[in-house]
Design a protein that fits this description.
Elements (H helix, E strand, L loop, with lengths): L4 E5 L4 H11 L3 E6 L10 E3 L2 H8 L4 H6 L7 E5 L5 E6 L14 E3 H12 L5 E5 L3 E6 L7 E5 L6 E3 L1 E4 L6 H6 L30 E7 L3 E5 L4
Parallel strand pairs: 1-2, 1-11, 2-7, 4-12
Antiparallel strand pairs: 3-6, 4-5, 8-9, 9-10, 12-13
Length: 224
Amino acid sequence: MSNPKVLIVGASIAGPMAAYWLAKAGAHVAVIERFPKLRTNGQAIDIRTTGVTVMRKIPGMEAAVRGKTTKMEGISIVRDDGRPYGTIRATGNPDQQSLVSEYEIFRGDLAQILFDLSKDNENVRYVFGEQIASMQHSEKENGPIKVEFINGLTTSDYDLVVACDGATSRTRAMGFCGSVRDHVESVNCWAAYFSIEQDLIKGSNLGHGYSAVGGRFLAIGNDP
């Protein structure tokens, strides 16, 4: 199929990245996002292994990421009185990373970089404040998918719909006639990420990690 028409749902990390590569392959891509603008919040994430390989294939992306990394040099594991007993640092070799990545970056900064890399491509169109109302696949073999939208985007046929709207994807649930948690299996492990104004590590580029009984772990890091 030459120059397929593709709809991507979600403009966070996976959506803009998929848009970049699909457009590069010749597809005409529409990316919809239910929020009214690009979301640039979120906590730190690492780019590793295959992610590093893919990043290096996109002109300008590695330099953009390096310019926005958290500058975290490592993490000290501390006792309950705050005294460190071991430190894990980045290896300095992105091809053989430790627990600490050379490419740790806040989610919002990465989303902005990927959006900027794809937004000016003539084959990519972003539509914010829009959601899918319904999808209907043609009964013909390899037929198109008719998509109706909630907030006024014209009903259109697409050759491919790509769900990039998260672990509890509404698009996936709609496509497979299920609920958003049908493909989520709890392992009873929970994490919370948040920011505070107080600098608890006093400007250091070394984070602190504390492992407590009962499977609990607390870590703090810098916020450039």
